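Got a spare moment? Tell me how you read both lines of this record:
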Amino acid sequence: MVPSALPWLDRFLSSLLDFFSISVLDPGGRFYWITGIESMLVLAIAYTVWNGIGNGGLRGFLRFCFPKGTYTHRSTLVDYQLNLGNFFINPYVNVAWRFNAAFFTTWLIAALTWAFGPAPHLLSWNWATLLGFTVVLAVLDDFGYWVWHYLCHRVKFLWAFHCVHHSAEVMTPLVAGRVHPVEAVLLPVFRSASTAVVLAAGIYLFIGEATTITVFGMGLVAAVMAAAGDQLFHAHVPISWGDRLNRYIISPATHQIHHSIAPHHHDKNMGAYLAIWDWMFGTLYLPRGETLRFGLAGHEKQIHSNLVTAYLRPVWDATVELHRLTEMARAWLAGMWRQRALRQIAPDPAGTPDAVTTLGAAFPHDPGHR
């Protein structure tokens, strides 16, 4: 075999082929072909319900699925770049890979053994216990996602990275992969920590290996949600399950509200599959047929206009926020030490703050610690 004159090009093309094959052919891929077919069937049902049987034909259905300008929009072009760029970059920046489900499960089993003794293995696996284990595992996985997602919206340092996802100005399934590598690295830690609870319990209490029920290589719950069109959560079509079911399960319409720039939609509907966490913690907002605009509130101009700005701007914003937090902590510690020094110099035997307050006037505040 004659060696290639451009080995780097061979590696790049091979990796590019891997990107498409893993995305489409692997059950864990973002655009797994089976879930893609299921999503198209859901779209066909929605199109028929809204337009009537036979109206519009195939051409009308394709226009419904792929609106003109949506997949060539400037925001969607960044989606393409991030989906592809993350495939190449994420393996090299995944510094948190050790904090996986095996790590947390091992520690929890050790804690159970310390507290209650060696694993009793009292129970046996059967279809009922496997089904329960599979469902509970999925529920806790969703809870780990919700906790991470909630923190991303509440902690400015994390929001600096998460806002890359929210800067999408049009909704397509590609937006699901519009994430910063830092978020892609940290999210699995939360999901692993939450699922480790049920994994540790299963290994500790049951005889044999803890397994889950799978369908087409996917977990049972993931397969059910795929059949309901979970690839459409970031699509432009506001498919809703109705108020009653929307209180328990996330729908495309529910998640589109999460991306809305309207102030009353901010920080709402943060579950991956389940809406129960939003209902329990007061962040659920049911679809009301409102006209939605997408993007980052307060930013008329796209701040993540290409792959470079989508990668580097969040790092800068997070660094600024980290510096602010550091200065706040420094000022707080300086204040604590100042009060401690005052008490050591002139302790107040009466226990009243007057002596400290009086002496404090002799020690003016450092203007650098405001």
In short: Residues 307-345 form the longest helix (39 residues). Strands lie at 214-215, 218-219. Residues 244 and 334 are 53 Å apart (CA to CA). The chain is about 60% helix and 0% strand.
